[in-house]
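G., the chain you wanted modeled:
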Amino acid sequence: MNSETIRPTVKPNGILRSIPPLERFTPLTPHMAISPTVSVVVPAMNEAENLPHVFATLPQWIDEIILVDGNSVDDTVAVAKRLRPNVRVVTQTGKGKGDALAAGFAACTGDIIVMIDADGSTDGREIIHFVSALVAGADFVKGSRYASGGGSDDLTFTRTLGNKVLTGLVNRIYGTQYSDLCYGYNAFWARHLDVLNVDCEGFEVETLMNIRAAKAGLKIHEVPSHERCRIHGESNLHAVRDGLRVLRTIFREWRGRPAAQLPEPRTTAPAADQGAA
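Predicted structure as tokens:
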């Protein structure tokens, strides 16, 4: 990449936006570099055995890894620090995945936030697809196990049926076209944290974020993702109990507060949204 390949671009409203200096760009592939910084949030509780597999898939170009430790009684924190000495550890004060993600999001300093699981079910090598969709214009990017190219090694009949029913319900109520509602691999611009406003405790957090992204009018894009089985240990997810929590979240958001409003467009693009080269 050289200066001749960098061209000022024109936004849809006709305003010319500036291109950051070359040193601001992070190479992702031999043909692509981006200027936004990327934070990855990994909520974990007693995942010491799984973290070596998870961290091995995370790209080296990630700017920041936030491990949210749910008061683990094993060596989760020590293993994380050994694998990535620059990892930032946040100790969770509450309980549940939603609470952990909220704590992790609050600690992020990157322009883009990616949320993945610590059990080995999500592949960090897919992060490039999420980031690429964001710099191409999306506000919120959802992983989908049902999109072409996606899949799962871990979906039971009960989970599959529940997910399809809940996804259809959300699509009908909110006018969305989601193919996979209850999946925890997502990414978004940090500037949208206010409208997402994560304020729940449990596994319903993915549904909450998907609904609030839609209500706020964010540009949502799905990318295919392949879910693998948990490598070690047992999942804290209980299909029926957590399915009911998701259902309550859907109706509470439907009856509850109006959608948060996006900020008015600025006359110049923020530094975080300078695209790719």
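The CA atoms of residues 55 and 84 lie 8 Å apart.

Shout if anything looks off.
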